[in-house]
Amino acid sequence: MPEGKMLCISCGLDYPLDAPVWRCTCGGMLDIVLRPAFDPAEVHRGAFTLWRYQAFIPVPRREVITLGEGMTPLVQVELNGRRVFVKQEHLFPTGSYKDRGASVLITQAKHLGVRKVVEDSSGNAGCAIAAYCARAGITCEIYVPADTSPAKLAQIESYGATLHRVPGSREDTARAVLDAAEKDYYASHSWNPFFFQGTKTFAYEAAEQLGWQAPDEVILPVGNGTLLLGAAIGFNELFRAGVIDRMPRLTGVQAVNCAPLAAAHQAGLATPQAITTLPSIAEGIAIAAPARGPQILAAVKSSGGGFVTVSEAEITQALRTCAAQGFYIEPTAAAAFAGTQKALEDILPGKTVVTAFTGHGLKAGEKILKLLH
Ligand SMILES: *Cc1c(COP(=O)(O)O)cnc(C)c1O
Ligand SMILES: [Zn+2]
Asked: What pLDDT, in 10s, does the model give residues 272-315?
């Protein structure tokens, strides 16, 4: 297990990795800083899950809570006559890449002796946390917006979690969980830094699958930025260790109807501003006030990348395009593909482009049926 600590990005206070905290006493966001450098020789080649990288994940290896997640295929998909690499992140045990973060975070919770966790989610993070809690024997309560896709609600309840449906916006749900987080462990995918120690394996896998090369461009959907920030952490570690010779450019995709980060980037701001939003079929990225907003903006900017926004019609069209090639994904995942299509207009042919199908279509059957008719 790598050595490290948690560090508050606001006041600089640090905490040992086994402190049962999800934010600093000053209210600031915690990051995890690790000492040892990434080394491909330490990849556990016999493990065909993300735990092949356990040497770089700061949780005890004996107690890993796993459902066999990770090492998703990297498949070439055609887009307007060009080819992009797509990580098949919908092929996870719970149907979304959130399992990367949940496996690591719930492993840490189990290690800390946590008996009950609470989490708020627009759906998929709730599914993932609930599943890994079931695997770990931890009691779990999930807060979701009342309009979350029914299949996701069924999935969360199936794992034995208690479901709290909160009327109103995603932000109302985030507020509702904070009271509960006063007394129970907050397994938050946006606040808890251990989640990002899981999502960083996206970068490890993509680089390894490309023969330990960095892609030129990485294009990902962004709401709270758990995948994009994880990818940034992972590629940064690989770069600092000299495994890859440059950082990829990171591009975030948001829905036109809810695009606080794209707006802030456009305006040259370091912090997203309050915005008015409209509902989006891309429910997984409809986040008006992302907790790690400044970090996301900084990661994208320092990579030389940017943001693209996609309309509801473009998302629906991308959903059809993907399905017509055999890929059944949920609308939020289709938004990323629509964004990739847009971003490609400014990317030279011959560049290596990596994106992801982040969530499975089976999670949103009813919504998809409505879009098709
Ligand atoms: C969670 C999620 C995203 C985006 O994740 P953020 O952490 O909010 O940026 C994208 N696609 C799907 C399917 C998701 O579940
Ligand atoms: Zn602090």
From this structure: 999 999 999 998 999 999 999 999 999 999 999 999 999 999 99
- Please check whether residue 281 is in contact with residue 370, taking contact to mean a CB–CB distance below 8 angstroms: no
Q: The pTM is what?
A: 0.97
CA 373 – ligand 1 centroid, Å: 25
Mean pLDDT of the chain: 95
Q: Which ligand is nearest to the CA of 339?
A: 1
Lowest average pLDDT, out of 51-55, 168-172, 307-311, goes to 168-172
Residue nearest to atom 7 of ligand 1 (CA): 226
Whole-number Å distance, alpha carbon 14 to ligand 2 midpoint, is 8
Pocket of ligand 1 (CB under 6 A): 96, 98, 124-125, 221-227, 284-285, 287, 330, 332-333, 358-359
Range 132-135 contact pairs with CB under 8 angstroms and sequence separation of 24 or more: 132/65, 132/67, 132/99, 132/102, 132/103, 132/105, 132/106, 133/106, 133/159, 133/161, 133/187, 134/159, 134/160, 134/161, 135/65, 135/66, 135/67, 135/106
Position 169 confidence tier, pLDDT thresholds 50, 70, 90: confident
Centre of ligand 1 to C-alpha 284, Å, is 5
Probe target for ligand 1 pocket from 285, 330, 357, with the most ligand atoms within 8 Å of CB: 285
Q: Give the pLDDT score at 61.
A: 84
3-state secondary structure 185-243: EECCCCCCHHHHHHHCHHHHHHHHHCCCCCCCEEEEECCCCHHHHHHHHHHHHHHHCCC
Instruction: Count CB neighbours of 373 within 10 A.
Output: 4
Nearest CA to ligand 1 atom 3: 284
Calpha distance 352→241 (Å, rounded): 21
The CA 41 to ligand 1 mean position distance, Å, reads 31
